[in-house]
């Protein structure tokens, strides 16, 4: 049984005070039947972890090395030290603006699992790839390369997020049919790699202009186990609504 998840990705938003206000506002208002997560900027993670009770906390990126001369980077050792549980890896913004390759993402996943950090691995096609019929090829390549040589001990600890790049921050949500079709396809690729039993236990999230008004419909689909939400996760009331709706439709 896959536990539904609603993860907010705050990206480069929120000061320490704003984050603390958010945590105080959502605590006590989140459903226990799903995993409610916020992935915050690294500099405020410790402040959030300190105040979070039912809310779970994740980072947005991680270097694949444990320490060394990598100016500006955050290591898995540092993330463990802040006691975060999750880390987003391979977000399309990291791939596009910081040249993260599938190979690098693969190294990060291995390192995260070595340090018992739960990776939320993002994959997704750009508009041109969708329009030229390459979506399946792109998703397959991203998934196969990301998980090359990865051993999954506990499927509950590895999350995949399908985020069509054309739907991120654009207000253009994928239709439920498009989102479900891609998530189902990804589960099939995961079954080829890890076997059906493991693939059936892995959580697959949808991300891309998810909001309180569409989370219910998207999460009613059989292969969509939750959401990775950017813009609509920034306000406490919207985050609570996302989580409570997600819990209701998956009850
Ligand atoms: O990680 C989250 C995604 O990039 C989605 O962002 P969005 O909900 O603002 O479209």
From TrEMBL:
Active site positions, chain numbering: 91 (electrophile), 163 (proton acceptor)
UniProt keyword annotation of Cytoplasm present: yes
InterPro entries linked: Aldolase_TIM, TIM_sf, TrioseP_Isoase_bac/euk, Triosephosphate_isomerase, Triosephosphate_isomerase_AS
SUPFAM superfamilies given in the database record: Triosephosphate isomerase (TIM) (SSF51351)
Family annotation (Pfam families): TIM (PF00121)
Cell location: Cytoplasm
Gene Ontology cellular component list: cytosol
Enzyme Commission number, as recorded: 5.3.1.1
Binding site for substrate: 9-11, 169, 209, 230-231
Signal peptide location: none
GO terms classed as biological process: gluconeogenesis; glyceraldehyde-3-phosphate biosynthetic process; glycerol catabolic process; glycolytic process
Function: Involved in the gluconeogenesis. Catalyzes stereospecifically the conversion of dihydroxyacetone phosphate (DHAP) to D-glyceraldehyde-3-phosphate (G3P).
Assembly information from the UniProt record: Homodimer.
NCBIfam families recorded: tim
UniProt family annotation: Belongs to the triosephosphate isomerase family.
Official protein name in the record: Triosephosphate isomerase
Organism of this sequence: Anaeroplasma bactoclasticum
Gene that specifies this protein: tpiA
């Amino acid at each position: 049984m896959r536990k539904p998840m609603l993860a907010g990705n705050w990206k480069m938003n929120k000061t320490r005070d704003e984050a603390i206000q958010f945590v105080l506002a959502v605590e006590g208002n989140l459903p226990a039947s799903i995993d409610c997560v916020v992935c915050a900027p690294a500099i405020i993670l410790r402040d959030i972890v300190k105040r979070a009770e039912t809310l779970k906390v994740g980072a947005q990126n991680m270097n694949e090395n444990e320490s060394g001369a990598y100016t500006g980077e955050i290591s898995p050792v540092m993330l463990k030290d802040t006691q975060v549980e999750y880390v987003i890896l391979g977000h399309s913004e990291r791939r596009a603006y910081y040249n993260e390759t599938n190979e690098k993402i693969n190294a990060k996943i291995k390192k995260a699992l070595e340090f018992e950090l739960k990776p939320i691995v993002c994959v997704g096609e750009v508009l041109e790839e969708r329009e030229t019929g390459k979506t399946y090829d792109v998703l397959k390549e991203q998934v196969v390369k990301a998980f090359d040589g990865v051993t999954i001990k506990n499927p509950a600890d590895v999350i995949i997020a399908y985020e069509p790049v054309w739907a991120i921050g654009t207000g253009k949500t994928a239709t439920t049919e498009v989102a479900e079709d891609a998530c189902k396809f990804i589960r099939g690729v995961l079954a080829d790699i890890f076997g059906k039993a493991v693939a059936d236990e892995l959580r697959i999230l949808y991300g891309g202009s998810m909001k309180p008004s569409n989370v219910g419909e998207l999460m009613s689909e059989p292969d969509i186990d939750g959401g990775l939400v950017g813009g609509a996760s920034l306000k406490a009331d919207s985050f609570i609504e996302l989580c409570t709706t997600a819990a209701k439709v998956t009850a």
